[in-house]
Amino acid sequence: MQVIIRPTTESAVALTAKLITDAVNENPGIVLGLATGRTMEAVYADIVKAYKNKEVDFSACKSFNLDEYIGLAGDDKNSYRYYMNYHLFDKINIKKQNTYLPNGLAADEKEESARYEWAIKAAGGVDIQLLGIGEDGHIGFNEPLSSLASRTRAKALTPETYQQNSPLFDNPEDMPKRAFTMGVGTILDAKRVIMLVTGAKKADIVAKAVEGPVTSMISASALQLHRNAIVIVDEAAAAKLQGKEYYNWIFDNEPEWEAYRNI
Ligand code: GLP
């Protein structure tokens, strides 16, 4: 795992977006794993900007999102399908039929979960998976105690997640209490993983996930088992990390980061 600390939220976001667009340019048929949440809005805005500046072409890409609320249709303003269309897909040239999210209205949850796993496999697997982190340490909607080997399935959300996400609904009580989510095992199968964490509110949980023990109580800690995981944090989110000096040293000295130091 590598941890990269950027001085501001904007530079952490810009670095994340640049890693994604560079990966698309290197491999135009790339399979992207995408995330939702407030943190990602700025990343998608940067990606859209790069697309408008003709710096990147998404016409051959595929994407798979991490999760979707159960019970919400794709045209519901609060569904993750709507979020993705609004923030990204409608603003770039990715083909809509190549963008996948679980179907929140699927009648058979087990079948939908298996179908989603199959679709990821049929596409050749996720090349680069973007992640945020919930305040309880979830990635996707893998709430505490999610098996580190879990696959896509329906999951009950915690009261903490409900509290964190329900303000995004016009009527907070409309927030579903369950969601489909890729499993921790599904996420670990991605060839590369980038987790972006910003803001002081996430400082505790990101320090636990990165420097604490691997535990199903904090599903993001499973990234320690991944061979190509990058965690990008801004100064505020980095506040509780013990190894800051070393992480900065790596970013300042490793050749792989040379092209990214001025972002
Ligand atoms: C939701 C999503 C997660 C995301 C989390 C953090 O719970 N399922 O994938 O990481 O929100 O969201 P925010 O960026 O709004 O803090």
Task: Report on the architecture of this protein.
The chain has 263 residues and is of the alpha/beta class. It has one domain (2-260): Rossmann fold (3-Layer(aba) Sandwich). Helix content is 33%, strand content 16%. It has eight helices and ten strands. The strands form two sheets. A seven-stranded parallel sheet has the order 1-10-9-6-2-3-5, with helices on both faces. The protein has a three-stranded antiparallel sheet with strand order 4-8-7. Helix 2 links the parallel strand 2 (31-34) and strand 3 (62-65). The longest helix has 18 residues, at 9-26. The structure holds 2-amino-2-deoxy-6-O-phosphono-alpha-D-glucopyranose. The site of 2-amino-2-deoxy-6-O-phosphono-alpha-D-glucopyranose has 14 residues, from helix 2 and helix 5.
Keywords, please?
263 residues; alpha/beta; 10 strands
SS strand fraction:
15-25%
CATH topology description: Rossmann fold
User: What is the CATH level 1 assignment?
Assistant: Alpha Beta
Which radius of gyration do the C-alpha atoms yield? 17 Å
The DSSP helix count reads 8
Number of domain units: 1
| Arrangement of strands in the largest sheet | 1-10-9-6-2-3-5
Bound small molecules, by name, code or SMILES, are: 2-amino-2-deoxy-6-O-phosphono-alpha-D-glucopyranose
- Which CATH architecture would you pick? 3-Layer(aba) Sandwich
The end-to-end span amounts to 21 Å
**Poorly predicted regions:** none
The counted number of beta strands is: 10
- The portion of residues assigned to helices is 25-40%
- Major β-sheet profile: 7 strands, parallel
Q: Give the overall shape.
A: globular
